[in-house]
Every structure is written in C-alpha cells, then in structure tokens.
Design goal:
Helix content is 48%, strand content 25%. It has 10 helices and 7 strands.
Length: 343
C-alpha cells in the first residue's frame, strides 16, 4: 500500500513540476524616482568636500550631477569646506560660515548647495594562511574518515579590504534649510593568491566604492534607471506552442529580449489563446516601458487563466508605470525651475 502511495505522490509532484506556471525569471528595466522632492532645485552649487581625497570626490560628484542634467555652480573652496567643518557645532562662528556660504550661492543664482566630507577612505592588504583539508581518495566529496586520517595543508593568501564613507548635505539656498543630510558607506572584501592576481587593485576598489556612494546620493536627487526580476510563465504540458514559449523564456532570462519576443509571437501564431505567451509578451512590453500594452496583454492572460504569477506580474507592471509617472513629474518640475531661472 505504501508503494502505491509513494508512486502517486511522485506522479503528482512530477505533474505539478511540468505544469508549473512560473519557473524562469527575467530582469526588466524601469525608472526609480528621486527619494526626496527636489523639483525646485536645478542649479546646484557644489563646494569642495573636506577630508582625504575630498577634491577627487567633488570632481566625481560634479560629473555625476552633470550626467543627470543639473546645472553646476562652483563656490570658493574655503566657504564650503570650512562651513562643513564647523556645521555640527554651535555658535557665532558656525552661523557666520553658514551665511557666507548662502551669500555665495545666492550670488551665483543657485537653488541648492551640496557640501560634505569624506569620513573614511582606505583600502588595505593583509596576509593570512588558509587551511586546506584533503579528504584523501574521496577529495572533494563528503568523507567519513576520522579527522586523524585527513591531511591538513595551508597556503598563504592575500586579503584586500576597503571602505569609503562620505557624508552629503543638501542645503536650500533660498531658505537655508537642510533638505537632507546623510552618510553613505560601502565596503569591499576579497581574497586571492598571495600576489593579488585576480583581485581589483586598491585604486580600483576605492574608485568603485566612491562611485557606489555617489550612486546613493544621486538616487536621492534624481530619477535613476533600476531593474527588477519578474517571473516568466511556462505553458501547461498539453498547450500548443509550448516549445516556443520555453525557448523564449530561456532567451529572455539571458537578456535577449528581441529574440524572446519572436518566439512568444510564434507561439501565439500556433495557439492564439496561449496565455503564457501573452503574459511573457506583457513582461517584454514592461521592459520596453510600454505600460499600456503591457497591462492589456497581462489582462488578456489573466482572462484566459488565473495564475498567481500573472496577478503578481500585473501588479509589478502597474507599480513600474506609477514610478515612471512620478519620475517624469520630477523631471518636468526641474525643467520648469530651469526655465524660470533663465527668465
């Protein structure tokens, strides 16, 4: 009796696996709006950051702002660096520095002031010995030999660790209010041969960590391209066009969207009611940011077959459309600010 029961359970499990609606995923692109409302800020004064490598960080930050279509204003080095050094203290000196900074920014018709400090900027190497346990004849596999029967070796390795911490502060040039003040930290840790082969250089590590911090601050100020993973649908075993859908899913997972769409459209040509192909075409439209098309295709798939991955996918499509609309509103607000400052 138990054998019959086990065979039945196995058959049910296999059938469920074959009929599973969502087994592959694909990465789609969308726009993530800025974390804070800075639509009134288009022309930004950037002071030179204090701390180690402050000048290099300031230059990289200005480049990222320019790429995001902000107008950049340079202020005298002293006004920004000295203000940041005393900004956490109280007293007449801090207030005087702050008023000097505001006066310089207003003179240049800036709407916002970005100032900050490099708190930590280091990458260090250390050497260590790593133990390697050999299991004898069964090396690489689980061994049941007693520990005394195992051979122990060690080799010297290089461990490279880096950390960059940068504090950013955005000040409203008109009111003098601090719009946001945040500290971002990113770390790296890697190990390799004693000569460091295969590891990024210390300079590469520090540059990458700095760019990650700058990405964080740009996400606060401007809409950024983002990605999300969404499940794709497979056909049921009896559905015509199943092979085309399966191949399209494989291509989409590899990022080959054009070829994937061709296979899903071929599946629809074979079977117009292939709901898996319809849903996957909706995801492709989501990736192209054609949200009206994406929502309509996902709804067609749902009307043919109600599946959890279809409802989840439709919710993601609608979420991405809302984020895109908010991102566009932020860009329009900045454009309006730029036109007003021009006039």
């Amino acid at each position: 009796m138990w054998r019959v029961r086990m065979r039945l359970l196995w058959a049910v499990g296999l059938f469920s696996l074959l009929c599973c609606g969502c087994v592959r995923t694909a990465v789609v692109q969308f726009w993530q709006p800025a974390a804070i409302d800075v639509g009134h800020v288009n022309r930004i004064a950037v002071t030179e950051f204090s701390g180690d490598q402050g000048r290099a960080v300031t230059s990289a930050l200005r480049s990222r702002l320019y790429q995001n279509e902000f107008e950049i204003v340079s202020l005298p080095m002293e006004s920004g660096r000295e203000y940041h050094l005393v900004s956490h203290s109280r007293g007449d000196d801090a207030e005087d520095r702050f008023q000097q900074l505001l006066a310089s920014a207003r003179k240049e018709r800036a709407e916002g002031i970005l100032t900050g400090s490099v708190i930590e900027y280091r990458c260090e190497d250390r050497h260590a010995r790593k133990a390697i346990v050999s299991e004898g004849p069964g090396e690489g596999k689980q061994s049941f030999l007693p520990s005394a029967a195992r051979s122990r070796e060690s080799r010297e390795i290089l461990i490279r660790e880096g950390v960059v911490t940068i504090e950013f502060r955005l000040v409203d040039a008109e009111t003098g209010d601090v719009t946001f003040s945040k500290r971002f930290t990113h770390r790296y840790s890697g190990e390799g041969p004693n000569d460091g082969e295969g590891l990024p250089t210390q300079t590469e590590v520090l540059n990458d960590l700095t760019q990650q911090c700058l990405t964080d601050v740009m996400a606060m100020l401007a809409p950024q391209a983002a990605t999300a993973e969404i499940q794709l649908a497979n056909c049921d075993v009896w559905t015509r066009g199943r092979r085309e859908v399966k191949e399209g899913n494989r291509l989409a997972e590899a990022g080959k969207w054009k070829e994937a769409v061709e296979h899903w459209e071929a599946a629809l040509a074979i079977s117009p009611n292939n709901h898996a192909a319809l849903f996957n075409l909706a995801i492709a439209a989501d990736h192209r940011q054609e949200y009206d098309v994406a929502e309509e295709l996902a709804m067609q798939a749902l009307r043919l077959q109600h599946k959890t991955c279809y409802t989840d996918g439709l919710a993601k499509i609608r979420e991405h459309r809302n984020l895109a609309m908010k991102s566009e509103e932020q860009r329009d607000a900045r454009m309006a600010t730029a036109l007003e400052s021009t006039w």
